[in-house]
Design brief:
Glutaredoxin; five-stranded mixed β-sheet
Length: about 100
C-alpha cells in the first residue's frame, strides 16, 4: 500500500529523496482517483527504485497550491527534489510507466 504523507514530512520524503518520487495528489471523493489507485499500487511493486506517496489535497491544501494542482488525479514525478513531470486525470499503467522511465 502506498503511504499517505503530509506537509510536515513532504520535504524529507520527497524533496530530499535521492530517488525518483511519484506523488499522487488525490481526494477521497474523486472517482478517477479511486480508479487510478490500483494502477499506482501495481507500478509501485514494479519499480522498487522509485518511491511512491499519496497526498490528500483536502488535508494538505498548501501542498496542492505549491505544486499547482488544479485537477485531480494529478501525479507529479519528482527528480532531484524538483517537480520534473506530471500526469493529470486517469491514465493507463503504460502511460504512467513511460513517464516514470523518462524521469529516472
Amino acid at each position: 500500500m502506498i503511504d499517505k504523507i503530509y506537509q510536515e514530512e513532504f520535504a524529507e520524503k520527497v524533496i530530499n529523496s535521492p530517488n525518483t518520487v511519484v506523488v499522487d495528489f488525490f481526494a477521497d471523493w474523486c472517482g478517477p482517483c479511486k480508479m487510478l489507485s490500483p494502477v499506482l499500487e501495481k507500478l509501485d511493486s514494479m519499480n522498487p527504485d522509485v518511491d511512491f506517496y499519496k497526498v490528500n489535497i483536502d488535508e494538505n491544501p498548501s501542498l496542492a497550491d505549491e505544486f499547482e494542482v488544479r485537477s485531480i488525479p494529478n501525479v507529479v514525478i519528482f527528480k532531484n527534489g524538483q517537480a520534473a513531470d506530471r500526469s493529470i486525470g486517469f491514465v493507463s499503467e503504460q502511460q504512467l510507466q513511460e513517464i516514470i522511465n523518462r524521469n529516472r
